[in-house]
Amino acid sequence: MISRKQQLNDVHSTQRVLNNVVYRIQHYREDNDFFTHEKTLLLHIVSGIIGQTALAMEMECLADHDDGKEQAPPEKHEFINNEAYLLFKGHHVIFCSHGLSLITIQNYLNNFLHSEKMDNSFEFVNITNIDKLQLINRNGIKSFNFSASMYKMTQDEVNSITKNRSQISAVINGFTQKVKEAFSKELTEEEQKILQELQVNVSVRLIGNTRASIEAQKFVKKEAEEMLVDDELSPQVILVTGNGEAVKSSDIQLHKTITIQKLKNSNSLQHEDAWTSLSNYFEELKSQKFTEI
């Protein structure tokens, strides 16, 4: 990744258009450890929908309604919709989302690398909390539940290049695509309201728990584990172990909530502040020996 970026002369060279959404590396920095000479790569990736405009409201409107004023971006510009911040060190990756999902970033970076006929495609894999994983392995999984807003699922900017790890998540994403096809690309207010009132719930459970066949137990365990690391789905999957203990996916996946300063008066964030938080979190994980897994 580092060698590929060094071959590029400007930001424009990193741009890729996937499904009418443009992605690019907005900021980039490479750090070298003075003592170990270990390299750290820091990226700020942004996306914007080609041709999208913004609607402004009149502050002193005296009419009974305000349809707003459509504002286009400056010439040769697009509005930035979503962002992500990443830290690469060795085979470790720390990811922070500000609208862009990890699977979307994975697809963009693979496309970016392959543009020069490089065959070293990669896939991000979540690291799990060992204690929670041992609990699941010890007691087995009796059931798992997945819940998500239909509106959120249909608005994700996911460009599904990678194959779904989970058979159930593949079915869910297939269903989501059908729903998206039934509505306008630019949702009307009524269509948005309909989708916001729809909730997708999936529940898979063993009948008989420990008396269920070994094959059924293996299937439930495998599907639940794959859904935990499937970034095309809502991050909240709830597992119920064989002894009735509920474990949330947020309890299993290593994560931390951080606060990043805004960039002036925009809806963007300060990338340097984000990178500092990612670096600090990596040091926390390193001190807890999670980086040795």
Helix-strand layout with pairing:
Blueprint lengths: L1 H5 L9 E3 L2 E12 L6 E11 L4 E3 L12 E3 L10 E8 L2 E7 L3 H13 L15 H10 L1 E9 H6 L11 H16 L6 H8 L2 E7 L8 H15 L8 E5 L4 E3 H4 L18 H17 L6
Can you give a write-up of this model?
By secondary structure, the chain is of the alpha+beta class. It folds into two domains: 2-54 and 61-125 and 255-292, no CATH class; 130-252, no CATH class. 32% of the residues lie in helices and 24% in strands. The protein has a five-stranded antiparallel beta sheet with strand order 1-2-3-6-7, with helices on both faces. Strands 9-8-10-11 form a four-stranded antiparallel beta sheet. Strand 2 and strand 3 (39-49) form a beta hairpin. The model is unreliable at 157-162 (pLDDT under 50).
What is the straight-line distance between the termini?
22 Å
User: Which sequence of SSEs, written as H and E, runs from N to C?
Assistant: HEEEEEEEHHEHHHEHEEHH
Uncertain segments of ≥5 residues (pLDDT<50)? 157-162
What's the number of domains? 2
Shape: globular
Percentage of β-strand residues: 15-25%
What portion of residues is helical?
Answer: 25-40%
Compute the CA-based radius of gyration: 22 Å
Helix count equals 9
The helix-and-strand class reads alpha+beta
Q: Major sheet: size, sense and barrel closure? A: 5 strands, antiparallel
The tally of strands reads 11
Strand order of the largest sheet: 1-2-3-6-7
- Overall mean pLDDT: 81
